[in-house]
Design goal:
Chain lengths: 358, 270
């Protein structure tokens, strides 16, 4: 895995010296590819667990989920850092990245996304600092004191900001009104994005918890996962209902069944990754079993990834024309980045600097 | 709105000589890539816009009155009245100038390519092979327009297919031509209402869909779609923040109250 990270770093170096075209397969027809579609959109969505569990634990004070919230916060923080790194790689004139802070292009959705993601990363670092100082006994009282005072404020901000930018990542595609397939394009696509990022949180926590428990030979907290699944069920059902209403309202419901490639992908997304997990979660015999809750959670997470990729690739393919398949280098960079995520996560777990950490 | 200047392209007058494309390259100093000179493009395939081709003339074989005819379409940036690219740019690198042209400022550009996603006509091109790539497209010769000169392409057109002038007057002119020959022209001015109107307008004697024009462009300006959602942002920020704060305080109080109950609960005699 370390080797993968090094390879990715080397490719990035080439990219910075010779330009984007030397490593990636994007074209004028396909301006956004794997790095934006997967690393950024999926990465940020997967990191959504940070804010949904923060809402459950810190705002609703359901303290029994605290261990999950902390694990989720850590993944979320690393996820955001990786998303920012891949964004930085993907933009062409990277030395200009600070411009939006100065030139207020507030009419752009990307402006909102950029501000929220940057601010939220800072908020997460501060939040994490609180946990860090609990464990590492550095005697620097003023910082800790200030941090403790502003923590409630940070927590609220740490939910509002992701709510805004998770939805804005969807709004990015509103302007592609004549490009994105109507099965995915919608005026309420921001709602779908933020909602799915939210219900993904508990599922993601379940997967992480299970894997971590397996790696470090501990008993997974099954009862916690089963309880969380009940929240996910309702959110999935609401998601499904709103999807159907939205499709009907825009009069494109029938196009989901016209047998085209897009419609098949859409049906697969809705049935395989929304309806099926609902059925699995509502069946007590499956929900209360470790394998059951784990499999259903994997489906939920895969479904959200599938949805993002459908928006970026499947839904846009017809109108953009041309071919895009990520190059080997793009894949290697992506793999390297996610390896880095896993490595950092494992390293921190290994250090066991975190209390209540699984 | 003072988006004054524009151009009207009468497709029936274009003979496909390509003078406009040459004038554009010369004025803007666009150099053809050496690779492409050696590689012969197949004659049937139209050349697309590129970083070094800000305008191209594409030919289309179409059927009319039973016979096959050839029509030439000059393509370039439409210079929308309310450009999606400019609204999408979060660094204000794309701007609609009051005179009409939509211009690009490379010093502000971050290179995120969201403008390319946003553009309904896909005219924006990216320098993929440069370390510090720019997004390039027709600038409508904004320096010339500022000096009350016509864009390079319009100034060299030998057949009068490109008419340059104030957009409002061009719309009148186009309507007049359609009214004069109602059986000849298609009753549609492309760019009058598409995506809220564009500075470049087209009239034709064959349906625009057969000439490679996008017929699915909505009449509403694209930035309006985004704005309908985006304008709620401050309200959501404040409202959602307030709701969360309320919930936070409420559930915290309940939690502490609960603890106190336990604290003062009667001690078990055992």
């Amino acid at each position: 895995m370390i080797a993968l990270v090094i390879i990715a770093a080397l490719i990035c170096l080439i990219r910075f010296i010779y330009g984007l075209g030397s490593v990636i397969n994007l074209s004028d027809q396909w301006p956004w590819g794997l790095w934006i579609g997967f690393d950024l959109l999926c990465g940020i969505a997967l990191a959504g667990g940070g804010f949904s569990t923060a809402l459950i634990v810190h705002v609703l004070h359901k303290d029994k989920y605290l261990p999950i919230a902390r694990a989720a916060l850590l993944t979320s923080l690393i996820g955001y850092l990786i998303a920012l790194v891949s964004l930085f790689l993907d933009i062409g004139r990277w030395y200009n990245f600070w411009r939006p802070f100065v030139f207020w292009g507030f009419h752009s959705v990307l402006f909102e996304v950029f501000w929220c993601i940057s601010l939220y990363t800072i908020v997460q670092i501060l939040e994490f600092g609180d946990i860090f100082f609990e464990r590492v006994r550095v005697h620097f009282p003023p910082y800790k004191k200030i941090l403790h005072k502003i923590m409630p404020f940070l927590l609220i901000l740490g939910i509002v900001l992701p709510t805004l930018h998770q939805s804005s990542l969807g709004s990015l595609y509103i302007i592609a009104v004549n490009k994105l397939n109507p099965l995915w394009w919608s005026m309420i696509i921001p709602f779908f994005f933020v909602w799915s990022a939210f219900f993904l949180g508990p599922a993601m926590a379940t997967i992480e918890g299970t894997l971590a428990a397996k790696t470090y030979h501990r008993k997974p907290e099954l009862s916690v996962y089963s309880d969380l699944a009940k929240v996910t069920i309702w959110m999935l059902i609401i998601y499904l209902i709103v999807k159907v209403i939205d499709l009907n309202y825009r009069g494109v419901f029938s196009s989901a069944f016209n047998g085209s490639f897009e419609s098949n992908m859409f049906l697969l997304e809705m049935i395989g990754f929304v309806v099926l997990p609902i059925l699995m979660y509502v069946t007590p015999g499956i929900r209360t079993k470790q394998w059951g809750v784990f499999t259903a959670s994997v489906l939920v997470v895969a479904g959200v990834i599938f949805n993002r990729l459908n928006v970026v690739f499947t839904g846009m393919a017809k109108s953009l024309g041309g071919q895009y398949f990520p190059s080997l280098w793009e894949f290697l960079v992506t793999i390297g980045m996610w390896s880095a995520l896993v490595l950092i996560y494992c390293f921190i777990l290994y250090c066991r600097k975190l209390p209540h950490f699984e | 709105m003072t988006n004054k200047m524009g151009a009207l392209v009468d497709i029936t007058k274009c003979i496909g000589c390509g003078s406009c494309a040459v004038a554009c390259s010369l004025y803007n100093g666009l150099k053809p890539e050496p690779k492409q000179e050696s590689k012969m493009e197949p004659a049937s395939e139209n050349v697309e816009l590129a970083v070094n081709r800000w305008t191209v003339v594409q030919s289309h074989k179409v059927k009319k009155n039973g016979g096959g005819i050839r029509r030439f379409v000059k393509r370039q940036c439409f210079h929308c009245q309310e450009p999606a690219c400019a609204s999408a740019c979060f660094a204000k690198a794309m701007q609609k100038t009051p005179a009409g042209p939509v211009v690009y400022n490379e010093n502000l550009c971050v290179g995120c390519r969201y403008c390319m996603i946003a553009c309904p006509f896909e005219v924006l091109k990216f320098e993929w092979n440069k370390p510090f790539p720019r997004v390039l497209k027709c600038q409508m010769c904004s320096a010339r327009v500022a000096e009350s000169q016509m864009p390079a392409c319009a100034s060299v057109c030998p057949t009068g297919a490109i008419t340059y002038g104030e957009r409002e007057k061009l719309v009148e002119e186009a309507k007049k031509r359609l009214a004069d020959k109602p059986n000849f022209y298609i009753d549609h001015i492309y760019g009058l209402n598409e995506v809220g109107g564009t500075s470049w307008l087209y009239i034709s004697d064959v349906p625009f869909g057969e000439l490679g024009f996008r017929t699915d462009a909505p009449e509403k300006a694209l930035p309006d779609y985004t704005w309908e959602v985006l304008r709620w942002t401050p309200a959501i920020f404040v409202g959602w923040g307030a709701i969360l704060t309320g919930l936070y305080l409420y559930s915290k109080r309940r939690a502490t109250a609960h603890d106190e109950e336990e604290m003062y609960a009667p001690v078990d005699p055992d």
